[in-house]
Write a structure and sequence with these properties.
Elements: H1 3-21, E1 36-41, H2 45-48, H3 56-73, E2 77-82, H4 93-98, E3 104-107, H5 117-125, E4 130-135, H6 138-151, E5 155-159, H7 168-180, E6 184-186, H8 188-196, H9 205-215, H10 217-232
Parallel strand pairs: 1-2, 1-4, 2-3, 4-5, 5-6
């Protein structure tokens, strides 16, 4: 065989040889809005004031956005507070008013919400296997509950933007421990996109873009800019054909 033909033959069989040695990676665990629920764990007005790994304005928005995910996708939500008659305080009224009929478990002593039987019953009653979770503090209320839920067999998605704690180091340590325990760490945008899956779905573009405009203005203003260009835009000299 001529040298050129030999090279052509070699390159022809290489892809098949490489494919034969490839092994499947870990499964991509996707959120499924038909099997998901949201937990708000101790996002309370008093505890909010101890959060130092986010600025106060951003974190308040993130708490409200996390809570609003359930309404956007019409999925169940369970709310819980810890010692709310003391310095921990109550749920912000913006969150409480979103879900006046949702289960609200007021714990009076248990640090890990899963240690409370009423809370366990409320979560199990939703009959969902995927849980989207956030709480204050990340290293206690979120971490303890997330690992307890994993031990019970739930798939847990910890919203890393909606849990807060005293320092960046504590947040990193807690996220590392949760990750090692099989908890999936995701931010708000990734959670919403995975629940939506396709802009043509319902909820889809029509419902999600206004939600993003409210809670993630960096993306909302992308949509606003497109709207302005379409409805009121004219090309500046030199733009045509760029």
């Amino acid at each position: 065989m001529a040298p050129l033909n030999m090279l052509v033959g070699l390159f022809a069989i290489l892809p098949a040889a490489v494919m034969a040695t490839m092994q499947p990676g870990p499964p991509f665990v996707r959120l499924n809005k038909d099997d998901a629920m949201v937990i708000v764990a101790d996002l309370q007005e008093g505890l909010y004031q101890v959060v130092r790994d986010f600025d106060t304005v951003t974190y308040r928005n993130n708490m409200l956005a996390h809570s609003a995910i359930a309404s956007l996708f019409n999925i169940p939500i369970v709310l819980t507070t810890s010692a709310e008659t003391g310095p921990n305080g109550v749920l912000p009224r913006e969150i409480a008013s979103m879900y006046p009929s949702a289960p609200l478990i007021r714990r009076n002593g248990e640090v890990d919400a899963w240690d409370n039987s009423e809370f366990r019953d409320a979560v199990r009653a939703q009959n969902k296997s995927q849980i989207i979770l956030a709480g204050i503090t990340t290293d206690v209320c979120t971490e303890f509950l997330a690992l307890s839920l994993r031990a019970e067999g739930f798939t847990v998605f910890a919203n890393t933007e909606a849990s807060g704690t005293f320092t960046d180091k504590l947040a990193r340590d807690a996220n590392d421990r949760m990750k090692d325990g099989g908890v999936i760490l995701q931010g708000m945008f990734a959670i919403v996109m995975d629940l939506m899956r396709d802009w043509r779905n319902t909820p889809g573009s029509k419902e999600v873009l206004p939600w993003l405009d409210r809670y993630l203005p960096a993306y909302g203003y992308v949509a606003r800019g497109h709207e302005a260009a379409v409805t009121n835009g004219t090309l500046a000299p030199g733009e045509e054909g760029l």
